[in-house]
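Re: [help] complex structure
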Amino acid sequence: MTDRSRPSARLMDGTAPARRLTEATAAAAADLRLRTGVTPCLATVLVGEDPASVTYVRMKRARCEQAGIRSRHVPLPAGTGTSRLVDVLGELSADPAVHGILLQHPAGPDVDERAAFEAIAPAKDVDGVTTHSFAAMSFGLPGFASCTPGGIMRLLDEYQVELAGRHAVVVGRSAILGKPAGMLLLGRDATVTYCHSRTADLPSILREADVLLAAVGRPELIRGEDLKPGAVVIDAGYNPGNVGDVHFASARERAALITPVPGGVGPMTIAVLLAQTVEAAERQLGLG
Amino acid sequence: MTDRSRPSARLMDGTAPARRLTEATAAAAADLRLRTGVTPCLATVLVGEDPASVTYVRMKRARCEQAGIRSRHVPLPAGTGTSRLVDVLGELSADPAVHGILLQHPAGPDVDERAAFEAIAPAKDVDGVTTHSFAAMSFGLPGFASCTPGGIMRLLDEYQVELAGRHAVVVGRSAILGKPAGMLLLGRDATVTYCHSRTADLPSILREADVLLAAVGRPELIRGEDLKPGAVVIDAGYNPGNVGDVHFASARERAALITPVPGGVGPMTIAVLLAQTVEAAERQLGLG
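Output below.
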């Protein structure tokens, strides 16, 4: 039974804003095609046949199609090594018909993923995985955002979450999620704390968070009792069974705003990928 | 009168470790000269005649000389624009006789300093100011550290300060001090909080800091009563009159370890610059 006296957070739905962003992207793609005859093209590179990765790539390609973006799929066999992958990414970087490049993570145990990412030309790094893009996010320079952090920032803006001067706590420090998200939040004048597996007394820090970003990939690590009442909770965890990093039911009783899993951060991530692909095409064609 | 019942922090002297590092650097430079006939060379680029900058560059060049490093000074007139500066830095980047490049900050009101920094070849970025170096520090990749953050990490190690799992608070978020220092601390498994001018209730966050890095350039902003008892306090502020960002007398009563100003971070910064110059020369000559 639900205790109706308990407050319940407003949901930060990502599907509707993602749909609006994708509609705007589709319009921009159509306009580009009209003006230049060129259809924006995203190359998707997948090493091996990990089922989750296959599904992600298929979903991203389907969304591309819906938005009037061509996708060129480059499947590589499991066990592909770094140098072969770097070559493929270098060729795509040099190919004028390709405007954006996505290397699906993880690229496999035989690959130096950092070296592979760096083989993507910054102008085509629409997934925001290169060190160039990271520095751009960190210093507020022109460049592409990592898609999940970029989607999170758009979601926060969509729900008019005030960031300046507020304490944002990022749990997780991966190169394409936690670290760049913290830098984007810092660029918006939040006070930013990075927590991770070695953090001592995580709950005491979580309780100081006006804005909490869970980005660690540990199912339901964070529970309602860890939250500051009225917090804004962004759950970017994706774990098997559509479970986030936040225990939704208990968190909802304490937060003011919370993203559902699924339907929160995920849709925004893909929408940003598409938007950045068209933006990349515009720049490469001398428009935009 | 001193109240002798009050505890007093141990000083984290930077001069002795800086001297030892510089001795090792001088030995490496001598060895390099012996093996290759080449003397490591640092190019120093100074725009205008700001007295503080003139003094800093003079001091750095004098230290180079003491360590057996050649310096090539490139003074440019006040009002030098970005494109001229970029050209000069590009030429130095291409010159095989130059192994490291230092552009003295600030480069003047007429210069896009980020564009200038990016004109420095990453292999010669011994001052750690390029986005390449920032990403290297952020992701634990090979590359040069920004000199002050690099010096701070060496000083912490020198005094065997435990970082893993401890809460490090960085006050200041500049591109070559606060931001990279936070990333280096995070890379060492500290929980890291970035504070800045927009942070609400700074004292409450300072009181949580096991390790506090003041890097904001506001004289004596931080006082002893703001500190957690037993904190390690690194004062990287440099303000007129040899005053740091920390009020030394009151902080000393509460901290366990504290850097003096001057004689703490400053000497380590220059020592790291010299060490990285010789390291750059070694790599460019195919050694090291």
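The two ends of chain B are 54 Å apart (CA to CA).
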